[in-house]
Specification:
about 60 residues; mainly alpha; 2 helices; about 0% strand
């Protein structure tokens, strides 16, 4: 007995159309990020990494 697909899920044709629509949209020239959340996460991780290295370097200099 095959399982029925729930009616609230999009059909494969709709998913294909959405994928084509997304791929046809061009991002801003010079932008490396397709999604603003990805850019925000990248910037947050970059800031945390730089701060951790700076704080670690200061602690290392003080304790040495």
């Amino acid at each position: 007995m095959a399982l029925k697909r729930p009616s609230f899920l999009p059909s494969l044709e709709q998913l294909e159309q959405q994928a084509q629509d997304v791929s046809s949209r061009r991002s801003r020239p010079g932008s490396m990020f397709d999604h603003p959340t990805a850019k925000a996460v990248f910037v947050a991780v970059l800031v945390v990494t730089v701060l951790a290295h700076l704080i670690g370097g200061i602690v290392f200099l003080v304790l040495n």
